[in-house]
Amino acid sequence: MKMRKKVYLILEREHHSRFAEFIHYFLMTLIMVTVIAVILESDPILFETHKTAFKVLEIFSLLVFTLEYVLRVWASAEVKKYNSFKGRFKYMLTPMAIIDLLAVLPVWFGLFVYRDFMILRGLRLIRVFKLTRYSRSMNLLMSVMKKESPNLFSAFFVLSILIIIAATGMHIVEAEDQPEQFGTIPRAIWWATVTLTTVGYGDVVPITAAGKAFGWVILMSGIGMAALPAGIMASGFTKEINRRREQFQNKVIHFLADGILDKKERRKLNKLAHDLAIAPAEVESIIREIKHMQLKLTELACPHCNEIIEIEHYSDHIHIKNAKKKP
User: Are residues 121 and 198 in the same domain?
Assistant: First the structure.
């Protein structure tokens, strides 16, 4: 195996070896450690006490993440659509590649160009988004948000309209009595947002009878609207988890077609289960369920010779691709 392909498989965790696992968990741990370090550095006393340790960690992580980014760009040519100069540039514009670049670029920029440590500290927190590649939970969250984005956009769009209506109405009925809080619609938006999201800080409240009545109507309307995005996300998580479980089940059925699950197939299943965020206990449960499924026998007639073909399978769904006709 040539070096570039091996690097690609290791970084994408498609190489089933202990070294690949070590690299995966090492990078994930380093991301979490550096993010925690950025948070702790905000304490001046703690930073001055352990200044050397923080700097050593930052330089070490910077070199590691820079090397990772360079290797990912170099190895991206193993994918057909990135196998050219333009292809690699296209890879560099993908969301995860941009996050990888932003994880190191501000630090290099700060070291040689702009030495404002406070701004640099904030930009370094971008590294937390790198966990999307390594963390199964972050990957699941991003996947759900991506698939439910149209529904979430619709919910927030309706909520935004309702906030504007509430702010406008409260401005009309409360502007004369509370000009500082409701004198303009932009000022009233704060109250409308806090009320419709059911946060209720209580720092701004209506004092007139009309304002209280209108506020009651808005409050009742906000109960359902505030829960709508949460409901969409909950439904999205359920659908995504079921979809991943079904994907894993289909792969197990495919491997058990011969009735045997060898070590190589087992490693592939464990890798797939990790990528799909399926717990080891659930993996064993799915495998046991499929092993105990009754093997079915289906007879089909060949469309060419009309002979009967017997097919043994586990699933109720059979998909047979059309065979290419001989010339």
Answer: no
Does any domain span residue 209?
A: yes
How many structural domains comprise the chain? 2
State the alpha helices, DSSP H only, in the chain. 3-11, 18-40, 44-49, 51-75, 85-92, 95-102, 105-112, 117-124, 131-134, 136-147, 149-174, 179-182, 185-196, 209-255, 263-275, 280-291
For residues 162 and 122, membership in a common domain is answered with no
Tell me the pLDDT tens digit for each residue of 209-229: 988 898 888 888 777 777 788
Domain extent, residue 43, equals: 3-134
Q: What's the token pair of residue 118?
A: 């406070």
How many whole angstroms separate alpha carbon 192 and alpha carbon 200?
Answer: 10
Residues 121 and 165 both lie in one domain: no
Q: Which residues of the chain have pLDDT under 50?
A: 326-327
Q: 155 and 117 in one domain?
A: no
pTM of the predicted model, to two decimals?
A: 0.61
Give pLDDT, residue 123: 65
Last residue of a domain, one of 225, 240, 255: 240
In angstroms, the CA 192 to CA 215 distance is 9
Strand partners, 313: 296
Q: CA-to-CA distance for 106 and 325, rounded, in angstroms?
A: 58
Burial of 6 (0-12, 13-18, 19+ CB in 10 A): middle
* Residue 181 Ramachandran class (φ > 0 left, ψ -120 to 50 alpha, else beta): alpha
- Could you tell me if residue 327 is inside a domain? no
For residue 14, the domain's CATH number is 1.20.120.350
What is the rounded CA–CA span in Å between residue 163 and residue 194?
9
Q: In this predicted model, what pLDDT tens digit does every residue of 25-57 receive, in sequence order?
A: 898 888 889 888 888 888 889 888 888 998 898
User: CB within 8 A of 273, min separation 6: which ones?
Assistant: 248, 279, 280, 282, 283
